[in-house]
Specification:
The complex is a heterodimer. By secondary structure, chain A is mainly alpha-helical. Helices cover about 50% and strands about 0% of the residues of chain A. Chain A has a single domain, classed as Glycosyltransferase (Alpha/alpha barrel), CATH 1.50.10. Classes of the chains: A mainly alpha, B mainly alpha. The interface between A and B is medium-sized, with 32 and 38 residues.
Chain lengths: ~350, ~220
């Protein structure tokens, strides 16, 4: 293989090291997780495929401005459950491209919506799933993102200028997937992210911002992709992250908040990247996620017995993937795409 | 949130006079959802770009009176204490802040936020932290009432690792905890606390086991 991304491989390696010294231990864990209440995979697939079609449902309306991200959550979940073929690839690709703004190089959240990096990443990720990066003008997209980097290394989300470390991650992740990371000032980007590091080892949206698991995922992921994990105090951050596990086994996003399935992704992926995932109780977490399923109608909710949505369905399945739940494809903790998709991008020469 | 960042763009154009109306704006949102992350981000941006620090510490006091478990308010307090141009900085504020935080801990020891805030007050200065008797006393008081309080145990563990010389009273308290489980009994007090934590905080047993390996004999 030529020029694999060393950081993805590092993340892969750390998963292998962390998840037990012996295969025996790993399969015991897998069995335990499978026994404790099954993943209703077929139901979730049906839920997602149906939701994609129902354009006038309440959920669809609420999600209208971020439909491109909704597509990423739904489709990645399908792929993780080996069911990406349940949707029409050409239809999806066409719809994604209808959100593209050729004059700027960015994608909007829906047809006719203004471009923003949030939806640009989602669009690129969806195209990665279908191996259709060929439809993109990668240089134009790279220009869009490069234009959003500020002098201090931070990134704005769009022309209105809001700065947030989420946008640092998004920009770095998008450009890396397009093999154009070198087009931004990576050193400055890293410098800015590091300036958002708090005393507790976590990261906020900007310097002084409250440490939040979502922001931490963004910063840790960005540092991983740019080969800059040495800036992280892994023991300190690992402790903050493992303290997110609540008595019910679920994870919260910051101190004194309730557990929420979406943190099964953000906390867990961060822990895996810094090689500290063994500091939480994975079995209890898996049980929590499985308890958040609607086993009749499909879908996963933020916490048990609440209404399901595509967002939490994705994060629940992604969390189970990180814990190697049987029947779920492995996911890359930094790129948030199935591992085989990431390998395809980085292990075969693409332009 | 598109409205919020459009407001930001406008506010930048208008200048410092916008600070008050922006603070009113975020205050309204936080009155409905006191931990709203986006609102806090915007409020912090306004403080640092346009000003309005004068009443911010009082605002934190108010929010913490309403809900002492509000981690965002504790974080904001830290921002104000360390970055406000009118308060004199962390060193000047530290003493009164330690008193404030210890009081909050005494009322609600099972509150992660003030314990973390306490660590922040001493930043990288472990020696100063260890030397502040109010803090080790606070740990001891909490443990005397509830020896399973994980926050107090873990703070105590960190103090011991940083070089705290345990008082006889503290040693006695730890021994009493250990005696409730006759199979343990450690010469090293830090190791003893570590093994108590492995029992009191089983979710994180792997973390405390690892911590124990870092305690050199």
């Amino acid at each position: 293989p030529d020029s694999p991304d060393p950081n993805t491989l590092a993340a892969e390696k750390s998963t292998a090291v962390v998840d037990g010294a012996s295969l025996t231990k790993r399969s015991e864990e897998e069995e335990a997780m499978g026994e404790q209440g099954e993943l209703a995979a077929e139901k979730h697939v049906r839920y997602i495929v149906t939701a994609e079609k129902k354009k006038d449902s309440f959920e669809s309306l609420v999600m209208e401005h971020l439909r491109a991200s909704g597509a990423y959550w739904g489709l990645t979940t399908l792929d993780l459950l080996h069911k990406l073929h349940a949707v029409d690839a050409a239809e999806v690709v066409d719809w994604i491209m209808s959100c593209y703004h050729p004059e700027s190089g960015g994608f909007g959240g829906n047809v006719g919506h203004d471009p923003h990096v949030l939806y640009t990443l989602s669009a690129v990720q969806v195209l990665c799933l279908f191996d259709r990066l060929d439809v993109l003008d990668a240089d134009k997209i790279a220009d869009y993102i490069t234009g959003l980097q500020n002098e201090d290394g931070s990134f704005s989300g769009d022309i209105w200028g809001e700065v947030d470390t989420r946008f640092s991650y998004i920009s770095i992740c998008t450009l890396s997937l397009l093999h154009r990371l070198h087009k931004i000032n990576v050193e400055k980007a890293v410098e800015y992210i590091v300036s958002c590091k708090n005393l507790d080892g976590g990261f906020g949206a900007m310097p002084g911002g409250e440490s939040h698991a979502g922001q931490i995922f963004c910063c840790v992921g960005a540092l991983a992709i740019t080969g800059s994990l040495h800036h992280i105090d892994r023991d300190l951050l690992g402790w903050w992250l493992c303290e997110r596990q609540c008595r019910d086994g679920g994870l919260n996003g910051r101190p004194e908040k309730l557990a929420d399935v979406c943190y099964s992704w953000w906390v867990l992926s961060s822990l895996i990247i810094i090689d500290r995932v063994h500091w939480i109780d994975k079995e209890k977490l898996a049980k929590f996620i499985l308890n958040c399923q609607d086993k009749e109608n499909g879908g996963i909710s933020d916490r048990p017995d609440n209404a399901v949505d595509i967002y939490h369905t994705y994060f629940g399945v992604a969390g189970l993937s990180l814990m190697e739940y049987p029947g779920v494809k492995p996911i890359d903790p930094a790129y948030a795409l199935p591992l085989d998709v990431v390998n395809r991008i980085f292990l075969t020469k693409q332009q | 949130f598109p409205l919020r960042h459009h407001k930001r763009w406008l506010a930048e154009k208008i200048g410092p006079d916008a600070a008050n109306s922006e603070h009113d704006f975020t205050r309204k949102i936080l009155a409905m959802d006191a931990k709203n992350y986006h609102a806090w981000s915007h409020r912090q941006w306004v403080l640092q770009a346009l000003g309005g620090w004068e009443s911010e510490l009082q605002y934190c006091n108010q929010l913490l009176e309403e809900d002492v478990f509000n981690n965002s308010a504790w974080n904001q307090r830290y921002l104000v204490v360390t970055r406000s141009p009118i308060l004199g900085g962390l060193a000047a504020m530290r003493d009164s802040e330690v008193d404030y935080t210890v009081e909050a801990i005494m009322v609600n020891p099972q509150n992660e936020s003030p314990w973390r805030y306490l660590r922040g007050l001493y930043k990288d200065d472990n020696n100063l932290l260890v030397a502040d008797n109010r803090i080790s006393d606070a740990c001891l008081k909490v443990l005397n009432k509830d020896w399973t309080c994980v926050f107090a145990l873990s703070f105590l563990l960190d103090l011991l690792r940083m070089g705290l010389q345990p008082s006889d009273e503290l040693k006695g308290t730890i021994e009493a905890m250990e005696n409730s489980d006759p199979e343990t009994g450690h010469a090293d007090i830090a190791v003893a606390v570590c093994s108590i934590l492995q029992k009191c905080d089983p979710l994180r047993i792997n973390y405390w086991s690892w911590y124990q390996t870092t305690l050199s004999s």
